[in-house]
Structures are given as structure tokens and as C-alpha cells.
Amino acid sequence: MDHQIIYRLVDDVKGKLSEQLAPNITHRVTGEAEVAQIFHISIKGRASKPVAGCKVRNGLISRNAKARVLREKEVIYTGTLVSLKNAKKDISEIRKGGECGMGFENWDGFKVGDQVQSFEEVVEKRML
Question: How far apart are CA 6 and CA 85, in angstroms?
């Protein structure tokens, strides 16, 4: 680096050091639902899979968003939704007041009364 003016050198050093900082990751909750009932649906013949029958309390639940399940205010699962259904139809999202069935990726330990939160991760670059 060839610098004639000191503040340009300081700005370049700050820029290089800022690139090394880990980004700030925040979670923004987009929707909340409560497990009201557990259903067992058959898939591919005799195999049965539990699905969480939920009522959306706030916001919007989207199949593409990440989800976490809370039991007594403690997070017991964080992952993605595999299925989101309303009256046996696949849907991409459901709003406040709607009822739906949710299937979670590689997890079926939900119980009646669990809270489901749909969230998105917001990544922000840190600066010096």
C-alpha cells in the first residue's frame, strides 16, 4: 500500500480489519403458532408420520422460513418445515387466524401446547 495522506491509510486499515470481523446475525420472528392437536398421516402405504395441527396466533408462517419449537419458553428444535398444509392442500404460507398442519425436517417430538416460531436470519456486516 502506498499512501501519501494518513487518513486514507487509516480508512484502508479499518476496511481490511472490518472484513475480518464476524457478521452480526439476528433472528426476526415473522410468525407464531401453537400446536393444538397431533395428526398421523399415512405416507407411501403403511408408513405413518405425525403432523402438528397448529393455529397461527401472530404474523405469517412460511414454508421457506426457518422454524423453531419452544416448550415452556425453552427452544427444543430449530430447523426447517418440510410440509405446510391446509385442508390436505400444500400451501406456501398461512396468516394469523389460520389453521394448518406442519411437518418438521427430521423431527417429530412436538406435543400439544408447543409454540412454533417462524423466523428469518438477518446478517449485518460489522464495521470498526
Answer: 61
d(CA 19, CA 101): 43
Count of alpha carbons within 13 Å of 94, Cβ hemisphere only? 24
pTM, rounded to two decimals: 0.76
pLDDT tens-digit readout, 7-62: 788 888 888 888 888 888 898 999 999 999 998 887 777 778 889 999 999 999 99
DSSP letters for 36-102: EEEEEEEETTTEEEEEEEEEEEEEEEETTSEEEEEETTEEEEEEEEEEEEETTEE-SEEETT-EEEE
Give the DSSP H/E element, type plus range, for residue 18: helix 6-20
Distances (CA, A) of 119 to 26, 40, 101, 106: 10, 26, 18, 19
The answer to whether residues 36 and 112 touch, using CB atoms and an 8 Å cutoff, is yes
Residue where the block lists cell 399415512: 42
